[in-house]
Design goal:
The chain is mainly alpha-helical. Helix content is 75%, strand content 4%. Strands 1-2 form a two-stranded antiparallel ribbon. The longest helix is centred in the N-terminal third of the chain and has 85 residues, at 2-86. This is Lysis protein.
């Protein structure tokens, strides 16, 4: 009888060990599936982040190209205006205030209107300096728009 009790005990222990091993295999399989799903979710998230970063880089590149074109166009326009000022094709002038009593003689233009406001031509050197100042201002505005576009794109 004693042998029978020991055999039962051994049988119960073996049954518990087998059940334990089956549970371990089941849990191991579940853990592997969860790990695979988790890894897949992480890869998808990384891909989505990479796609967003690529889209942002492309948008910033297009914005940089647009601002570079604007700056180039403005510089070309400014150079043409400076050339026209230098060759006397264009002259800068200012309106004179008739009530100031300033004795500056107004310049007459060919084909000018008789009742037009009095104007005085600026010295070409001063006109070039004014154009230089406006060039700097134009360049600064273009650079400011580029910075604002960059901040808006990155902030999204």
């Amino acid at each position: 009888m004693r042998v029978l009790g020991v055999c039962r005990l051994i049988g119960i222990c073996l049954l518990v060990a087998v059940v334990w091993q089956v549970q371990a295999w089941r849990y191991g399989g579940q853990i592997e599936r969860l790990s695979a799903l988790q890894a897949q979710a992480i890869l998808q998230q990384q891909q989505a982040e990479q796609d967003k970063r690529l889209a942002l880089e492309q948008q910033l590149s297009a914005s940089d190209q647009q601002h570079a074109r604007e700056l180039s166009d403005a510089q070309r326009h400014q150079a043409a205006l400076r050339d026209r000022l230098a060759t006397a094709d264009v002259r800068l002038s200012v309106l004179l205030d008739a009530s100031s009593g300033c004795p500056v003689p107004a310049t007459a233009t060919a084909g000018g209107v008789v009742h037009a406001a009095a104007r005085a031509r600026l010295d070409p050197a001063h006109a070039q300096r004014i154009i230089g100042i406006t060039d700097d201002g134009d360049n600064a505005l273009i650079a400011l728009r580029a910075c604002q576009a960059y901040v808006r794109a990155v902030a999204r």
